[in-house]
Write a structure and sequence with these properties.
The chain has 301 residues and is an alpha/beta fold. It is built from eleven helices and eleven strands.
Length: 301
C-alpha cells in the first residue's frame, strides 16, 4: 500500500516486538487509539531463535489486517528477512519498512529487493552503523537516496546503537544533546541531510518511569528540528502528541508567513519573522497544526 504520508503525522512510533501477543489489536488501532504509527520489530527486540515465530505472527496478523488511520511499518532484521517478508500474503497492506543498520554496504541490497516487489512501500532508513562516524559515507548514503527508487519517508536515528559504538549509556537525567560525541553525530546528520529535504526522527528515550524527563526530551528534539520519535512504551504516546501541538502565536505567524499578500518582514509579539527565510519553519508548524492542533484544544485529526 502506498498512501500519501507526511513524516509529521507519524508522531511517536511505537516499537513492537514481532512476537507480541497483541500485535493484531495494536496494528488495528484498537489497543492504543491515540497511537499515530508503529514499527513491528524483527531485529533488536528478538533473539535469532524467535525469528520463525515472529514471521508466523506477522503472517497471521496480516491475514486479518485492514489498513486504518494508524501507520504500520515493519523493521526487517536484514535484507534476507526483508526478502521473506515481501513474500507474505497481504504485505502490500502495510505502509512500509524501517530499514535497520542502513549503510553503504546494504543500501543497494534493500533497493534491489524493494524494486523487484510488485508493491510500493515507504522506507525509513535507520542510521545506526559505523557509517555514522564518516562524513564521506553519510554523503554517499545521501547521494544514493537522492537518486534511488526508494520512497524515503524519513531517516531514523538509531541512538542506542550509536551510543553502544561509543561505549556510552545515557542516564535518564542526561540530555543526549549535551553529550559531546552523540550531539556532534546528530548535528552532522541534521546538516548533511535536512537541507536536502530529508526529515529526521529523534532518538529513543529509554527511561519509562520519568515522564517529566521524557517530555523535556521531546521538546529538546523539536528545538533541534527533529520530527518523529521512536518510543518504547505506550505511556510515551500521549506526551509526544501533546508536545507536537502548536501555540496560537506560532500558528498565526506561520499562516502570515505563507500568505502571498504578506510583506517580507513580520513582527508579532515583539518577535521578527522573515517570510522567505522562515517559510520551511512555517510549513512545519502548519503540518503540526493539521495533525495535532493547538495547545489546549482537541487534535484536528
Amino acid at each position: 500500500m502506498i498512501r500519501h504520508l507526511s513524516p509529521v503525522q507519524l508522531g511517536g512510533s511505537l516499537y513492537i516486538p514481532a512476537i507480541h501477543k497483541d500485535l493484531q489489536s495494536i496494528c488495528s488501532g484498537q489497543k492504543y487509539p491515540h497511537l499515530r504509527s508503529c514499527i513491528i520489530d524483527t531485529e533488536d527486540a528478538l533473539g535469532e531463535e524467535e525469528l520463525e515465530d515472529a514471521m508466523e505472527n506477522i503472517t497471521q496478523m496480516l491475514l486479518r489486517y485492514k489498513p486504518e488511520k494508524l501507520c504500520v511499518f515493519i523493521r526487517p532484521r536484514n535484507p534476507l528477512v526483508l526478502k521473506a517478508l515481501l513474500r507474505i500474503k497481504n504485505i502490500d497492506r502495510i505502509d512500509g519498512f524501517s530499514l535497520p543498520k542502513f549503510s553503504t554496504k546494504v543500501m543497494h541490497d534493500y533497493e534491489l529487493l524493494l524494486k523487484a516487489s510488485p508493491y510500493s512501500f515507504y522506507v525509513m532508513p535507520v542510521l545506526e552503523s559505523l557509517d555514522l562516524f564518516s562524513t564521506e559515507k553519510l554523503e554517499a548514503i545521501r547521494s544514493f537516496l537522492l537518486s534511488s527508487t526508494l520512497k524515503t519517508l524519513s531517516l531514523r536515528l538509531g541512538g542506542e546503537d550509536m551510543m553502544n559504538l561509543l561505549g556510552l549509556k545515557r542516564n535518564c537525567e542526561e540530555s543526549i544533546y549535551t553529550l559531546v560525541a552523540p550531539a556532534k553525530i546528530i548535528a552532522d546528520v541534521i546538516t548533511l541531510f535536512k537541507p536536502f529535504g530529508f526529515n529526521i526522527t529523534a532518538t529513543v528515550f529509554n527511561c519509562i518511569n520519568t515522564p517529566a524527563l521524557f517530555e523535556q526530551n521531546v521538546r529538546d528534539d523539536l528545538r533541534q528540528g527533529l520530527l518523529g520519535k521512536t518510543i518504547i512504551h505506550p505511556e510515551q504516546i500521549e506526551p509526544v502528541n501533546e508536545a507536537y501541538r502548536v501555540t496560537r502565536s506560532e500558528y498565526e505567524m506561520a499562516v502570515k508567513m505563507l500568505d502571498p499578500q504578506t510583506k517580507a518582514i513580520i513582527v508579532q509579539e515583539g518577535r521578527m519573522g522573515e517570510k522567505f527565510a522562515h517559510s520551511a519553519w512555517a510549513g512545519t508548524i502548519l503540518e503540526r497544526y493539521k495533525y495535532y492542533g493547538l495547545i489546549g484544544h482537541a487534535p484536528l485529526s
